[in-house]
Structure of S-layer protein:
Amino acid sequence: MKKLLVIITLVLVSAFIFAGLKDVPENHWAYDSVMMLQKAGIVTGYPDGTFRGVNNVTRYELAVFLARVMDLLEKDIQKVMVTVDVHENDIAALYEITGSLKKALANAVTKEEVEVLSKRLDVIDKDVIRIYEALSKKVSADDVEKMVNDSVDSINGQIEFLYKKITVSEENSKKYVDEKYNELAGKLLNVETNVNNAIPMLRNLVYQNAESIKNVDKKLVKYINVKMQSVDRKLKDVEEIKEFAQFNTDTLNGLAAKLGEVEYALRKQIEGVKKDVESVKKDVEGVKVATEENKKALETKAGKDELDAVAKKADSANTLSIVGLILGIVGVGLGVYAAFVKP
C-alpha cells in the first residue's frame, strides 16, 4: 500500500506527463520518478522513444492515466481484502485450537508436561503480541501477511507438539494440576484477548486504507476538474482569437474592396489626364506650326523687334500649356488622396 501511495503522489506531482527515455537523461531531476511511473505501467513514451516532458496533456491522455491508476488501486484493494480474509480464517482456527486445548487440559498431565505446555503457550502468546504490535504500527499489507504467516506456521508447529505431549494421566496430583490448569487458562485467556484485539486492528487497517484511497480519489477528481477548467479557458481564448481573426479578415476584405474602387477611380482619372495631355500636345503642335508660319511671315515682313514679340507670345502659349498639364496631374493626386481618406 505504501508503494501505491508513492505512485499516486508521483502521478499528481508530475502532472500526468508521458514517460520516455531518449530525452530524459539520468542526471535529470525527474528521472527516477519517470522511470518509476514507466515501470508501474502508468505512463509510456511516444512511438519515437521520446518523453516530451514539456508538452501539455490532453483530456484523452488524462483519462488513460486515471484508468491505469484506478486499475492499480483496485488490484491492491483486492490483495488487502484477500489478506484480511486469510487472517480471519487463521484467527478462527486459533479459537478452535484454544478450545481444544482447554478440553485436553481438563484431564490431568504430568508435571514435566505441564511445564512444557506452559513454555509453549508463552511462545504462542509472544507471537500473538508481536502480530498485535506490528498492526499497531500500521505496517504494510505485505509485511503483515508475511508476519502472520510466519506466526501461524510457528503456532501450528507448537500445537502439533502439544497434541503429541498431551496424554491422560490420573496419577498426577489434583492440586498441582488445578494450579497449573489455572495458570494455563490465564495464559490462554491472554492469547484470546490478544487475538480479539488483533482482529479489529486488521479491520481498522483495511478501513483506514480504504479511507485513504477515497481521499486520493477525491484529490484526483478535484485535480481533473481544475485541469478541465484550464482547458475550457484555453478553448475560450481560442474562440476569441478566431473571432478576432474573422474581424481582421472582414476588415481586410473591406479595405481590399475600397482599394479596388480607388484603383478604378484612379484609372478613370489617369485616362482623363492622358486625354488632356493628348489635347495639350495637339494644341502645342498647333501653336508650334502657327509660330513657324508666323515666324516665316514675319521674316519677310517684319523686323527683328517684331520677331522677338512673336517669340514671346509663343513662349507664353507653351508656358500656359505646361501649367495646364501640371494642374491636371495635381488634380489626379488630389482625387487619389480623397479616395483613400474617405471613410
